[in-house]
Automatic annotation (TrEMBL):
Annotated InterPro entries: Beta-barrel_OMP_2
Domain of life, per lineage: Bacteria
Pfam families to which the protein is assigned, alphabetical: OMP_b-brl_2 (PF13568)
Name of this protein: PorT family protein
Source species: Winogradskyella immobilis
Chain ranges of the Outer membrane protein beta-barrel domain: 27-203
Amino acid sequence: MRYLPLFFMFFLFQSNYGQDSLVVDDRYREDQFYASITYNILSNVPDDLSQDGFSTGFHLGFIRDMPFNARRNWSVGLGIGVSSNSYNQNLIISENANEFQFSFSDETIENIQKNKFTTYLIDFPLELRWRTSTATDYKFWRIYTGFKFSYLVYNTSKLRSSNLDNDLSSIDNFNDFQYGITLSAGYGTWNFNVYYGLNSIFDNTVSVDNQSIDIKALKLGLIFYIL
């Protein structure tokens, strides 16, 4: 028992030393990894093209956060990621004599259960970032806006109907390079996210009845950020 006061004094000294030696990281960075899910909408569509069903996108990646002011609430983000994007619609993609052909679904194709194409992309996001964070505050408001450049690595098209089934891949009529503007905004972990494509999903060789299919992607969803 005679050593108890000494032990108590030692414990207080260690506690005070630990608190005094706590160093706040004034070189902190934010939001290095992201994951998001989106609802994919086709925009700039011709009159005969329509979407049917729920079209989804899944996105994962890493962004290097690079603050450029003393408070570190402004930064540039540059990253890399992967995504898959499906679009359920009535554009029929078929293959004939090693050439891909495009048409709209009609009465010759009976009872269509599924008709979608999917793109698999490597994404390169570039963002201008503003937030209200500090080195010790992990819940904050943020607005990130910028561009996303994507490279198409693979694509598929699937059709399921009563009298016709098609499974195609590596369709060379897709644009290899796709790009658009992005916006993420919100508070805390989950944030609203939007992407609007500035160029067409297909190249300029795709047409139906001499009408160019210059469709673009609009993606609305939620994005999850972690350090």
